[in-house]
Structures are given as structure tokens and as C-alpha cells.
Design goal:
The protein is about 15% helix and about 35% strand. It is built from 2 helices and 8 strands. Strands 1-8-7-6 form a 4-stranded antiparallel sheet, with no helix packed on it. Strands 2-3-4-5 form a 4-stranded antiparallel sheet, with no helix packed on it. Strand 4 and strand 5 form a beta hairpin.
Length: about 150
């Protein structure tokens, strides 16, 4: 009788444990538009409003824009480049950094971090103001996907 009871208890425990397995996340590709200092919660449609998902979703932040391009009306030795520094904070609190650029020497426009692909999809403004004007208000389009690229 005792072996039967142990077997039944083990089966019930296994059934209860099976419910705790999380299904894989739904595939998504989303474009976030960020300004310096702004952040976005990553997930399908910004976590889709599902209860409990926002707290467990990673957070990406545009830390800064490095724009060394030659301004209109300036005489420059080189054309310069523009790059964007991001941080990615995971649900467990770990933080990683990455830089994206479409024209920085040895730079990349796409990186992979924590099962996500981050791609620089664009930025505004493309044209630089004159050297006497204030720096522009940058808007950076960041494509994020949990689908591995081919």
C-alpha cells in the first residue's frame, strides 16, 4: 500500500510541477523611438498590458548620442560619425551596454543581447545644424526582436 501511495504522490507532484513551466515567449519585432535618457519596456507591444509581464520584461535605455560629424559651415579634418549608447536592464537587475552606429569605424548597426536582437533602424535629424546652432533633439528608432536573424 505504501509504494502505491508514494507513486500517486509522485504523479501528483509531477502534474503540479508541469504547470510551472513557462511557455516560450511569443515571437515579436517592435520598433521603439527613443530620445536621450528615455527607456522602453521590451516585449510584444510593450508587454501587451498583460498582468505581471511588465515587471519581468527587460528595459532598454538610450544613454547618450555621440555626434562627432562635421557641422554645416565648419571646416573639418574628417567627416566624423554618429553613434548611440544603450543599456539593457534584465528583470534580474543585470545591466549590459552596447553601442550602435551605421557609420562609426568598426561599429555595428546590429547586436544580440540576452536572446534579443537590437538594430539601429534610423535616427532624426539626419542633417546637422550649423556650428552656431544648438545641438538637435535626437530621436532614435531601435528595432528589437526575439526572432534570431538568419
Amino acid at each position: 500500500m505504501l509504494p502505491l501511495l508514494v507513486a500517486v504522490m509522485a504523479a501528483l507532484h509531477a502534474c503540479g510541477s508541469a504547470n510551472k513551466v513557462r511557455p516560450p515567449p511569443a515571437p515579436f519585432t517592435t520598433i521603439y523611438v527613443l530620445t536621450p535618457g528615455a527607456s522602453a519596456t521590451i516585449g510584444p507591444a510593450g508587454a501587451g498590458g498583460m498582468a505581471g509581464v511588465a515587471q519581468a520584461a527587460p528595459l532598454v535605455r538610450l544613454e547618450r548620442v555621440n555626434d562627432s560629424r562635421c557641422r554645416a559651415g565648419s571646416v573639418c579634418v574628417w567627416a566624423g560619425y554618429i553613434s548611440f549608447s544603450f543599456t539593457l536592464q534584465q528583470a534580474d537587475g543585470t545591466v549590459s551596454s552596447f553601442v550602435l552606429s551605421d557609420n562609426m569605424p568598426n561599429g555595428v548597426a546590429t547586436v544580440q543581447r540576452a536572446g534579443l536582437t537590437f538594430t539601429l533602424a534610423g535616427y532624426e535629424p539626419k542633417a546637422l545644424p550649423a556650428k552656431t546652432e544648438a545641438p538637435p533633439d535626437y530621436r532614435v528608432s531601435l528595432k528589437v526582436s526575439n526572432i534570431n536573424p538568419p
